[in-house]
Design goal:
- The structure is a single chain.
- By secondary structure, the protein is mostly helical.
- Helix content is 32%, strand content 6%.
- Strands 1-2 form a two-stranded antiparallel ribbon.
């Protein structure tokens, strides 16, 4: 019993993978299980408000200047993500009036993901100053 415990302890502490870890499974067991479903609660966002944000603010990322249309052509036209500067998690259970020009930023998918990982979720300017170096703009000029 002590030997098994010792082996388990060593497996969990060496490299960070424990017994039963997905990385410990044989390759033939690596698959996507599309038979499993999960039900999640979700806050519904206003599609109308999101469209209005894009009309008013345009479709160029406010952090990196990525313009999807310049890079991808017609399929990129009008594509950008509307980022809530007031996190929806702080507003749940309420009906809140939002100004498309004040309460939102337009961000490419990468910058949108990264701002959510940062401490500057409500301040695009500070996020850009802290995490985006000049000269790396993605303007579509390849």
């Amino acid at each position: 019993m002590l030997t098994l415990y010792s082996q388990l302890y060593q497996a969990e502490t060496a490299g960070g993978f424990g017994a039963g870890s997905a990385l410990d499974e044989p390759e033939e067991l690596l698959y996507e299980d599309l038979t499993r479903f999960r039900l999640h609660k979700r806050l519904e966002r206003s599609v109308k408000l999101s469209k209005l944000v894009k009309v008013r603010k345009g479709c160029v990322c406010e952090v990196c200047n990525l313009d999807f249309e310049k890079i991808y052509g017609e399929i990129g036209k009008g594509y950008i993500e509307a980022h809530h500067l007031r996190p929806l998690s702080t507003l749940k259970g309420q009906k809140v009036s939002m100004d498309p020009e004040v309460d939102f930023a337009v961000l490419c998918a990468n910058c949108h993901r990264m701002i959510h990982k940062s401490e500057y979720i409500s301040d695009v300017g500070e996020f850009k100053n802290k995490h985006f170096s000049p000269g790396r703009e993605k303007t579509g000029e390849l």
